[in-house]
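To: structure desk
From: M.T.
Subject: fold request, one chain
Message: Could you run this one when you get a chance? Sequence is below, nothing fancy, just the single chain.
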Amino acid sequence: MSRDSKSYGLWDTAKTIIYAVLIALVVRTVAFEPFNIPSGSMKPTLLIGDYLFVSKYSYGYSRYSLPFGLPIVPDRLLFTEPERGDVAVFKLPADNKTDYIKRVIGLPGDRIQVRRGILHINGAPVRREPAGVELTFNPYGQPLRVTHYMETLPGGRRHSIYENSDNERYDNTDVYTVPPGHYFMMGDNRDNSEDSRSIGAVGFVPRENLVGRAEILFFSTDGSSPFWHVWRWPWVIRFHRFFQDIV
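Reply: Done. C-alpha cells follow.
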C-alpha cells in the first residue's frame, strides 16, 4: 500500500469519527440527552442507578441546551410551558452548572405551601392516598420505613411519593409565591429532597434553567457498581426497569 493510500485511509477514518461526534452533539442538543440518577431524592419514581433520556425540545431551547452552556441563545427559543407534574431536569440556579431533576409542582403565579406534610396549591390541599409502607434506605445506607402515597395534582396528574413522617423540616412551610417566569420544584422523596422549599439552596427555578423533560428509563443498575463495569451487569442490572415511561 502506498503512502498516499495510507494517508487517505487515515483521513477517511478521521472524517467518519468527526461526523459521528457532530451528529451525536446535534442529537444531544436538539433531541435527547442521557442522564443518570445519583441520589434518592426522586424515590420511588427514580432510583439511584437509573439512566434516562431527557427530551431537549419539550420546553424549547436555552443556553443550557448547548454544550458547556454557551451563552448564544437569548432566554428560550420555541418555548413551551412545562406542565404541572412533569419530571424535569434543570440547572441549579445557585451555580447554573449542576444538573438537578425534580417534579414541577408550582407554575408562575402559584402559591405553594406544605402543612403537616400535605402539599397545598393555591390554598387547596392536594389529595394523597396511602399506598402502603415500604422499606428503603437513608442517604447513609441505614434501613428506613417510609409511607408510600399516591398524590394527585390539580389537573389529574398522579404520581408516587415517599414520606418519612409529617413532621420533618419541610413538612410545615411558609407560603411560596412563584414569580413570573419561574417554577417550583419538589422531589418525590419528600423528606429527603433539597428542592424549591429551600430558597437558599435551590429556590425558584428560572425558565432559562430548564434543560428538558424526563421521558423514559432505558437502563438501570442497583447503584453498587459503575456503568462501565460490564462484567458485573448480570448481578446489578434491574431489567424490570428498562424502557419505562417516567410519570
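Reply (cont.): The longest strand covers residues 127-137. Let me know if you need anything else for the meeting.
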